[in-house]
Request: fold
Amino acid sequence: MVYISKILLFPIKKQRKYLQSGFIDTLRLFVKAGSGGNGLPKFGGVGGQGGNVYLVGNENLTLENVRSAHKTKKIAAKHGRNSTHNFILGVPGENVKIEVPTGISILTDDGAKLGEINKEGEEIIVAKGGQGGHSKNDYIGRIGESHSIKLDLKLISDIGLVGFPNAGKSTVLKAVSQANPKIASYPFTTIRPNVGIISYKDLRQISMADLPGLIEGAHINKGMGHKFLKHVERTKMILLVVDVNGFQLSPQHPFRNCFDTIILLNKELEMYNPDLLNKPTMIVINKMDVEGANEKYLEVKKKINHLSDYFGEYPIEIRPEIPLKFQQILAISAQTNKEDIEVLKNKLRTLLDVCYQDNKVDEFKTLKDTIELQKEKGPRLV
Ligand SMILES: Nc1nc2c(ncn2[C@@H]2O[C@H](COP(=O)(O)OP(=O)(O)OP(=O)(O)O)[C@@H](O)[C@H]2O)c(=O)[nH]1
Ligand SMILES: [Mg+2]
Reply:
C-alpha cells in the first residue's frame, strides 16, 4: 500500500476513526410488487392479485443484517397468475416479507413518509401488488407498485445524551444503567449509539441513548455528531453533559471553557433543529472531583440561567439566537460519586414523569417548587 501510494505520488489518507464504525442508520432498498394476472373474458375469469412487499418488525435485527440479507437491494414479490379454463380465479402472487429492525421510519425518494415500524411483528405494505384483470379493467392485470424506499433507523429512547467528546456521556450511561459502553480519555470514543436501561427499585425502566460527541460545526457536518442528532429528535428529553474543565479538540482548536461549551451546544442544537430547544433538557456538569472544579462551577452557575445575556460575547458564527433552558442543573462526578448518580437517576425520573404526563414543556414551571425543596439534599443543585 505504501509503495503504491509512493509510486502514484499521492498520499493515501487513513479513514477517520469516526467514519469506521460500520454502523448504518439508513438503508435504501428497491421494492417491486407483483403485477396482477390477466382475467379470462370468455368465462368472466379474474386474474390473480400481484403479491405485496411488506416490511415486518424484528427486534433482534440491525440495518446491517438487512443489508447483508438483501445484497442486491432489489426485492420483488411474485406476479398473480392469469385466469385460465382450469383456474377461473387466477392464483394470487406470493407476498414477500422483509424483516427489518424496530424503530425505523420508511420514506420514499421524495421524502414522503410511508410509515413506521416500532414493534416486533408490526407490518407495513411498502409496494402494493397490481389488481388482477376483470370485467371492469378490460381483463388486463395492473402493474404492481415499484419504487425505492429508505429505511431510516431512529433509536427509541426516553433520554438522549448530548455533549462534546470526552465530557463523560458514556461514563454517565454506565453509572446509571447496566450498559457497558467503551470509556476512554480521548475524543470520539463512542462511535455508534448505545442504549442503556436505567432500572429503579419499583421496576420502572427508563431508556437512555449515548450518542457520539458533537463538535463545533456539527451542523455543517463536522465530525459525526450531526448524523446522530436525528435520534435526539425522538427522545422525550435531552441530557446535556459538559465537562466542568471545558474542552479542546486538539492543540489546533481553540480551548473552550465549560460555559463556552454550553453556548456552543446551544448553537449546534439550534442549527440542527430549533425545535430541539423546546425539548425538556437537563444539564449535568461533570468531573466535579477534579481540583479547582468548584470555582469553575460557581462561575458557570452564575450565568447558566441567563445564557442570552452572554450571547453578545461570542462571534456571530457561534452565537445562538434562542437560549436553551434547563429544567434541572446538576453538578456531579459521574466517575467517582455514587450518591451523585442516585440523585441524577431520581431527577431524570421526576422530569420524565412530567414529560409523560403533560407532554408540554410549559408544565415544567411547576417543577420549580420541587427543585427548590430538593435543594438542600444531594449534590450542588441550582
Ligand atoms: N475525573 C473524572 N473523569 C471522568 C469523569 N467522568 C468521566 N471521566 C473521564 O473522562 C473521559 C471521557 O469519558 P467518556 O465517558 O468516554 O466521555 P464521552 O463523553 O462518552 O466521550 P466520547 O464518546 O468521545 O464522546 C474518560 O477518561 C473518563 O474516565 C468524572 O466524573 N471525573
Ligand atoms: Mg462516549
Notes: Residues 1 and 134 are 64 Å apart (CA to CA). Residues 360-382 have pLDDT under 50 and may be disordered.
